[in-house]
Design a protein that fits this description.
Blueprint: H1 3-10, H2 14-22, H3 41-55, H4 60-69, H5 75-105, H6 116-122, H7 131-144, H8 150-156, H9 163-173, H10 185-195, H11 198-203, H12 209-220, H13 224-246
Keywords: DNA-binding
Pfam families: MerR_1
Protein name: DNA-binding transcriptional regulator, MerR family
Length: about 250
């Protein structure tokens, strides 16, 4: 195979191959009398391995170490490993396509590639014009990136279509621009805290820098009166967790 042919086969550029030759990552094959390099199947196997390793985020020095560990192995062994790598990639692609199908079929936009469990929960939430409901959705998407399990979404599912919860959002919306000593704050905070199921508290990690930083960021994301409500809710939920721990 010539350089253009092996490049097309493996899915890299001829320029990349020349660079691999230059840094000593891929041995440069011999040339025919016409000056063209001639690449073998083993060259293609090594080049494909280099591509996969770099796609996984390895630097070229790290790739060189991995290749050195595989030196001297039989071609069929290397091919079998590459086939296993492709099988894992194929499985990953299928999973990503399943997640994409959920996004396409549900209300979650392409800009919000969430986990299947959260996509299922958001799919049950009715459309609303509440700014606070929209903000809660954003916070759930953010929380999803921290790797919380599906238990929290299962615990939240009964609230998704509860009219009382939507009324709470409307009360929170109404505090936009209000003072931090507004008399509506204490009863709303109490009602919101009471609406959070115990299953949600059990599923959310209560400590660690990620959750601490997230809690602080949440408060900064609200208007002052709304932030006061959220602060009171967080304090009430923390008290509930502590009470359960000592009970």
């Amino acid at each position: 195979m010539r350089i253009g042919e092996i490049a097309a086969l493996v899915g890299v550029t001829s320029r990349a191959i020349r660079h691999y030759h230059h840094v000593g990552l891929l041995p440069e094959p011999g040339r025919r009398s016409n000056g063209y390099r001639v690449y073998s199947v083993r060259d293609a196997v090594v080049l494909a391995r280099i591509r996969r390793l770099t796609e996984l985020g390895l630097g070229l020095d790290e790739v060189r170490d991995v290749l050195a560990d595989a030196a001297g192995r039989e071609l069929m062994d290397v091919l079998a490993e590459l086939d296993a790598d492709l099988a894992r990639q194929e499985s990953g692609i299928r999973e990503r396509r399943r997640r994409l199908a959920r996004l396409l079929d549900g209300p979650v936009s392409a800009e919000e590639p969430v986990s299947p469990a959260l996509a299922e929960l958001l799919g049950t939430v009715p459309t609303t014009g509440s700014p606070m409901a929209a903000k809660d959705r954003e916070h759930l998407v953010l929380l999803d990136t921290t790797g919380v399990g599906g238990e929290i979404y299962a615990a939240l599912a009964p609230l998704a279509e509860d009219p009382a919860v939507h009324a709470l959002y409307e009360r929170l919306d109404a505090l936009d621009g209000a003072a931090v000593d507004d008399p509506r704050i204490p009863p709303l905070a109490a009602d919101l805290a009471a609406a959070v199921p115990d299953g949600v508290l059990a599923a959310i990690p209560s400590d660690g820098p990620v959750m601490t930083g997230l809690g602080e960021a949440l408060l900064d994301d609200y208007a002052p009166a709304q932030a006061e409500v959220v602060r009171r809710v967080m304090a009430a939920l923390a008290a509930r967790v502590a009470e359960r721990g000592t009970g």
